[in-house]
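Quick question: what would this complex look like in 3D?
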Amino acid sequence: MSDRMINWYKYAGPQAFYPLAGKMIPWFWVLAAIFGIAGLYVGFLVAPTDAQQGEGYRIIFLHVPASWMSMFIYLVMAFWAGLGLAFNFRLSGMMAQALAPTGAMFAFLSLWTGALWGKPMWGTWWVWDARLTSELILLFLYVGFIALQSAIDDPRRADKAGAILALVGVVNIPIIYFSVKWWNTLHQGSTVNLTKSSMATTMLWGMLLCALACWMYAIAVALMRVRRIMLEREKDTLWVREELAKEAQ
Amino acid sequence: MLTPILAVIVRDLRLALRRRADIASVLFFFIIVVSLFPLGIGPEPEQLRKLAPGVLWVAALLATMLSLPRLFSDDHRDGTLEQLALTPQPLGLIVLGKVCAHWLISGLPLTLLAPVLGIQFDLSGDALWILSCSLLIGTPALSGIGAIGAALTLGVRGSGVLVSLLILPLYIPVLIFGAGAVDATLTGTGAQAHLSLLAALALAGVFFAPWPTAAALRIALE
């Protein structure tokens, strides 16, 4: 038990985590590619055409995973940020910083694909529906986090300030979600609710595979980014010089 | 426990009263922004009445935000904040005092001004009353949540724009329920539910916001 604990803490330091991340990245890329190809194969070739929406519904295979990831990454980011604030791990702040752009990208992608899907299905790019609005606010929260971190030059302070913001945001997300939802139902009926037919199992499988692909992609990209952040922040230390010398060979 | 809060409130109010121009500029900003809307969208009373709750509330949000950077920056610059952080009283209580003072300086005058501006938008007596109530209940939440942003951006370059980026998304629930209360009065569905939720937000905001604010101030003072 005790040596397992030591192992964990060993990888909490950038010096030990850097090579480990380097070894893991190719695997996550391979998994992302496998799941992606499988998901797209199921999505485009196996899954049947939807009875109500025709071929247009196939954007779901990108839209839903992107939405899931955008919300999930915010939670992971806040988790790392809180861990960094509580235990002062150097790596935690770096992970939070590395995750934010990916999360923002997924939030944007979710809005973008949603607009592309909404145009043919609902006849409009944008509706002030509860879900769309809260996704937009999530994007704003990501942007605020990134802006705050990049405005503060001292990385330690940037990490801590970002952590507080991320945690406040997590507390606020349910409040925002419900306020938006209630606001909406008070004004307009649910014009945008699709009549829920039970989803064909192949569609569900395609969606899950694509979600896994997005997940693997997010991990791979975050690890790549966190490696760069480590090098940048610890550029004056011996281990960075050794790593760079190794890579230069 | 109340003594440090009261001391901070009295001190901040005294400082603010010696620089009345700061308070006045925020209020005039509020008046000007609200007055721009009828010029921009045309003077039809029907349309104005519909837009009034949203316009007044958004303008109140922006005006509050404009006054936020000054919440801590002067004290930070002359070292007072460091001394306040060193006092045996919890920093959270001192922040609570500063939040209360900020509300008395910005939120309360905005609330008192709003009905006058509401008349410009041809709001009925009922709607004006609910507008004042909703601002009275909601603006403390704005001061509380805003303090977090002001503390996080303390001494950061471009903090004025940054604070809006951080805080405006968090203000959305207050805006929705505040403007919603007036809207509900106009459509005749009753503002009770909105005002209750607004009061819940304000209580939670004023109660919880001082702690992350204090944490952010300690980070800024490191």
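Answer marked as accepted. Chain B has one domain: 2-221.
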